[in-house]
Amino acid sequence: MKTFEIQYISRYYEEKIHSSEIIKANSEKVALKKFAKLFKIEDYSLLFETNYMWEDGVWSASFKCIKEVNEIVCPHCNGNGKIVIN
Questions:
Q1: For residues 68 and 58, what is the distance between their CA atoms, to the nearest angstrom?
Q2: Residue among 58, 60, 28 at smallest CA distance from 45
Q3: What is the number of structural domains in the chain?
Q4: Prediction pTM value
Q5: Residue 16 is part of which domain span?
Q6: Strand pairing report for 54-56 and 59-73
Q7: Which residues have CB under 8 Å from 15's CB, separation 6+?
Q8: Is 25 within 8 Å of 86 (Cβ atoms)?
Q9: What is the pLDDT of residue 77?
Q10: Per residue in 28-41, pLDDT tens?
Q11: 31 membership: H or E segment, kind and range
């Protein structure tokens, strides 16, 4: 099982924040499908449409990118947590 970081941008009027979700999946395609399901997007391929945005509460969000990342045990909390590195 691989770990993917999916980045997206949320907008509310002039405010803009960059966010990401960490998803475990066997492939990039499966990770995108899980991400789409999480945000109630019917077809994950819509994420690749240039102007596609979905509603996330009062925010509007758009897909930025996906990349495979590594997950390691946090050295500062004696293994109680995990951190993601590129």
A1: 29
A2: 28
A3: 1
A4: 0.85
A5: 2-85
A6: antiparallel
A7: none
A8: no
A9: 72
A10: 999 999 999 999 99
A11: helix 28-38
What is the predicted pLDDT for the residue at 80?
66
Asked if 3 and 71 touch (Cβ cutoff 8 Å), the reply is yes
Question: Which long-range contacts link 82-85 to residues 24+ away (Cβ below 8 Å)?
Answer: 84/3, 84/5, 84/22
Burial class of 21 by CB neighbour count within 10 A (0 to 12, 13 to 18, 19+): middle
The contacts of residue 32 (CB under 8 Å, 6+ apart) are 6, 44, 47, 66
20 and 6 Cβ atoms separated by less than 8 Å: yes
CA distances for 26 relative to 2, 33, 44, 72, angstroms: 6, 11, 16, 18
Whether residue 83 contacts residue 72, with contact meaning beta carbons closer than 8 Å, is answered with yes
